[in-house]
């Protein structure tokens, strides 16, 4: 039996434009020069290029700040983590405050312009049809740093019914490796396959004692770079395409 644990952003949903725009809007509450309703096309394009550097939504605020300051998107792929503390200090707010700001900004935008908000976070091609046609007994879960209510809104908007109790979001309050451990405990004779677009997350989870039975897969269509995909192969982490995901319940998968 196979249990699929799927990241959301970068695996099921191409949310880069919404995340970047939400980060910009939230930044407008901190910096006057980010008060415009939308980022410029150039800044948003830079965000698309640098998106693999961030893991969690609130970091979009800091990444947008750096891009507006003229930082090179390709350089940020390598040094965003090192630069994050300095931008956080400039914001004058701690991580918890930025998470709250990012979430409430999203909520306000969703309430005011639901269609415009959802349009910037489409599911990847074929994902909605695949999710809608999964057999009822398929064990499929979503493990994400996005808050569950946003995941539910995007899935329902795409015509996908997905049980709330199978969505482990940011508000669940546990890191992805802890959720994977819970899934292993609940499915002791099944193979748990974790599909994630962030290589650093996969390697962190793989290093956790007790997760040796989890089959790690990098979503090659998501927010990662060619270098990261090559590194994944060297680390014996298979790089999947969307067709691999769609056929996952029909193949034998091993850790």
UniProtKB/TrEMBL annotation:
Q: Which GO terms describe its biological process?
A: DNA repair
InterPro entries assigned: HAD-like_hydrolase_sf (IPR050155), HAD-like_sf (IPR036412), HAD_sf (IPR023214)
Gene3D superfamilies on file: HAD superfamily/HAD-like
Any one of the GO CC terms? cytosol
Identify the PANTHER family for this entry. PHOSPHOGLYCOLATE PHOSPHATASE, SLL0295 PROTEIN
This protein's name: Putative phosphatase
Q: Could you cite one Gene Ontology molecular function of this protein?
A: phosphoglycolate phosphatase activity
């Amino acid at each position: 039996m196979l249990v699929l644990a799927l990241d959301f952003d970068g695996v099921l949903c191409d949310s880069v434009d919404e995340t970047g725009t939400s980060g910009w809007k939230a930044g407008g509450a901190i910096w006057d020069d980010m008060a415009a309703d939308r980022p410029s096309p150039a800044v948003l394009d830079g965000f698309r290029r640098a998106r693999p550097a961030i893991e969690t939504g609130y970091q979009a605020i800091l990444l947008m700040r750096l891009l507006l300051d003229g930082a090179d998107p390709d350089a940020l792929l390598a040094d965003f983590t090192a630069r994050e503390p300095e931008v956080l200090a400039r914001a004058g707010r701690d991580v918890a405050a930025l998470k709250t700001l990012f979430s409430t900004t999203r909520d306000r935008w969703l309430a005011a312009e639901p269609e415009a908000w959802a349009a910037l976070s489409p599911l990847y091609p074929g994902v909605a049809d695949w999710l809608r046609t999964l057999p009822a007994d398929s064990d499929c879960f979503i493990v994400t740093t996005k808050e569950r209510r946003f995941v539910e809104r995007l899935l329902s908007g795409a015509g996908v019914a997905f049980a709330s109790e199978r969505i482990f979001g940011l508000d669940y309050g546990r890191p992805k490796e802890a959720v994977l451990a819970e899934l292993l405990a609940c499915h002791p004779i099944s193979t748990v396959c974790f599909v994630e677009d962030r290589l650093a997350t996969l390697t962190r989870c793989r290093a956790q004692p007790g997760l040796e039975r989890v089959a790690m897969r990098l979503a090659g269509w998501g927010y990662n770079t060619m270098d990261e995909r090559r590194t994944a192969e060297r680390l014996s982490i298979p790089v999947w395409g969307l067709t691999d995901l769609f056929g996952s319940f029909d193949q034998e998968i091993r850790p």
